[in-house]
Design goal:
The complex is a heterodimer of chains A (368) and B (204). Chain A has 368 residues and is an alpha/beta fold. Chain A has twelve helices and twelve strands. Chain B is α/β, with parallel strands linked by helices and 204 residues long. In chain B, helix 1 (18-36) crosses helix 6 (160-182) and helix 2 packs across helix 4 (94-101). Chain B has a single domain (2-203), classed as Flavodoxin domain (Rossmann fold), CATH 3.40.50.
Chain lengths: 368, 204
């Protein structure tokens, strides 16, 4: 089981002080969160991609490339990479380059983006969101697996004899997750390729995500990638931890009440009851997160949203200390002891390489 | 004997409410008209004021809480819908509109709908034709030709106005009942069960 942190990169005023961090401060804060993620023993840091204020991370591979040099162990990932408005050729190149620089510590999550105006800024139309995600990813998938690609589609210039460089490290393309909040088509897409499926699991009740993940698992098996329980599932989560749960609620409430997305809507109590958000003691976070397994089955990656809604960096770093010190070690032990042996662990470059080498060996011994 | 499920939505805010009163009258008339067509009905009454916070929360968060989710399900799965709104500022009330704004696109397509409204003055009556009918036409519902409007004077003044209200209720209920009874609604496809295969997605 892999644990990590994903950051949206929002620039939000701290509701307690009214202070708005500068872009420079916010970007450096994301770096500090990523470094802390490694320091506390977690496995993954993932950055969002946005092209509109109030968000800073427009250039994920720049940030992840920098982090590759500053870290040694964590997987550098995205949540999400816009498969609709980015050119799939550039995604192929950028992430293959990052993969070499980071010695394989790279994977990425495809997402469509739900901000209408962003699409035309990149010459696209949000109404084509699903077809763009399907065509663009189909090309990206080929670019990493075929040395020379001839290609023609609806949404970009045709390619003749194109080789995307650098080639993926060791011939192993970065592992891909497909993230979706509400589209069965994306669960189907992840299943078709045998890729991972990530349910953001933050803003909506679990019942909704159970349906999406069940669909993905069923179709993963249908396409012959393994049993439904062997499909690669990732989940988001959102926590605020203090030793004493009343302190957690008191401290987090103003951030919740003014947060982008759900602020000024439901109460903190309603939202924690209806969605996976946990605000409380380490034990409460552990109990609620362990329940995810009951709802969604054994899964491979758990990412937490920690730095958002204007929380000061010092608080976020304290939160990470508690997450890494008191929560994740217990979760890791519990999840690992519950997971049957035939269910795969979270994807790593080394793991994918070993599978590929095993397959090559079998083919050499038993040529068809 | 055929069976049909009706959902009745009242946007009234007061308790008791004349809007709810009109909704009850329409529901009873529809039940009777359907009984005459040999159709047994099951009626679900929804007072939108009971879902007021759930609806505004959903505008912000995008998801329905459990109670509102159940109410929406009743409406979506109904064979016909009776709707009554108070007229505020020459149109449907804000609360009434929010309910239809949080529905998924297309869920009312082809569904028979009665539109009705209440107000303090008969001068608001054409709001049904100018505001409420276009709302449901936009949602591709089948709006019955007779819209039912009741002003304060339509309730119990013992005049011809009162008589006219009963006639309008019966006429709207009759039109509604014929459509509701006519055909079985096709069951809606469940996108999680009836998956479009990826080959089809790639080809399209």
């Amino acid at each position: 089981m892999q644990f990590g942190v994903f950051s949206v990169g929002d620039v939000t005023p701290d509701p307690k002080t009214g202070r708005v961090p500068t872009e420079a401060e916010r970007i450096k804060a994301m770096v500090a969160v990523a470094l802390k993620t490694e320091e506390i023993g977690l496995d993954v840091f993932a950055t969002g991609e946005h092209h509109n204020p109030p968000f800073v991370p427009s250039s994920p591979t720049t940030m992840l490339g920098y982090l590759a040099a500053r870290t040694e162990r964590i997987i550098l990932s995205t949540a999400t990479t816009l498969i609709t408005t980015n050119d799939p050729v550039k995604i192929a190149e950028d992430f293959a380059m990052l993969q070499h620089l980071a010695d394989g510590r790279v994977d990425l999550m495809m997402g469509r983006g739900n901000t209408g105006p962003v699409y035309p800024w990149f010459g696209k139309d949000i109404r084509d969101g699903i077809p763009l995600a399907i065509e663009n990813y189909h090309l990206l998938h080929r670019l990493w697996r075929e040395d020379v690609v001839d290609w023609e589609g609806k949404y970009r210039t045709p390619l003749q004899s194109f080789t995307s460089t650098p080639r993926p490290l060791d011939g192993i393309p970065p592992f891909v997750w497909h993230g979706s909040i509400r589209s069965p088509e994306i669960a189907e897409q992840a299943a078709y390729y045998g890729d991972g499926f990530f349910a953001n699991n933050i803003f909506w009740p679990k019942e909704h995500f159970i349906r999406l993940i069940d669909l993905y698992r069923r179709r993963f098996e249908h396409y012959g990638h393994g049993g439904a329980d062997q499909a690669m599932v990732g989940l988001g989560g959102q926590v605020f931890i203090r030793k004493n749960s009343q302190d957690a609620v008191r401290e987090f409430r103003p951030y919740f009440d003014h947060a982008p997305v759900y602020g000024y809507g439901p109460t903190l109590e309603e939202f924690t009851e209806q969605t996976p958000l946990t605000v409380g003691s380490p034990q409460q976070v552990i109990e609620k997160t362990l329940k995810f397994r009951d709802y969604f089955g054994d899964y491979q990656r758990q990412l937490f949203l920690m730095d958002h809604a204007g929380l000061p960096l010092s608080t976020v770093l304290e939160q990470l200390e508690m997450l890494g010190g008191e929560v994740v070690p217990v979760l890791r032990k519990e999840f690992d002891s519950l997971r049957p042996t035939h269910v795969p662990e979270g994807p790593t470059h080394a793991g994918l390489k070993a599978v590929a080498e095993g397959r090559a060996l079998v083919e050499a011994v038993e040529p068809n | 004997m055929k069976r049909r499920k009706l959902a009745v939505i009242s946007g009234g805010l007061a308790q008791p409410s004349s809007t709810r009163l009109l909704a009850d009258r329409l529901a009873m008339a529809a039940e009777q008209a359907l009984a005459e067509l040999d159709v047994e009905t099951e009626i679900d009454m929804l007072d939108l004021r009971d879902y007021a916070r759930g609806m505004t929360n959903m505008l912000v968060t995008g998801f329905a809480d459990e109670r509102l989710g159940a109410a929406i399900k009743e409406v979506v799965e109904s064979d016909g819908l009776i709707t009554v709104t108070p007229i505020f500022n020459a149109s449907y009330s804000g609360l009434f509109k929010i309910f239809f704004d949080v529905l998924e696109p297309g869920v009312l397509a082809g569904k028979p709908v009665v539109i009705a409204a209440t107000a303090g003055s008969p001068r608001h009556s054409l709001a049904l034709e100018h505001a409420v009918r276009p709302l449901f036409s936009h949602m591709r519902a089948l709006v019955v030709p007779t819209a039912v409007f009741a002003a304060s004077e339509d309730w119990g003044s013992g005049t011809s106005a009162e008589q006219a209200l009963s006639e309008r209720i019966d006429r709207a209920a009759g039109e509604f009942a014929r459509w509701v009874a006519a055909e079985d609604r096709p069951s809606r496809l469940d996108p999680y069960e009836d998956v479009t295969s990826f080959e089809d997605l790639l080809d399209s």
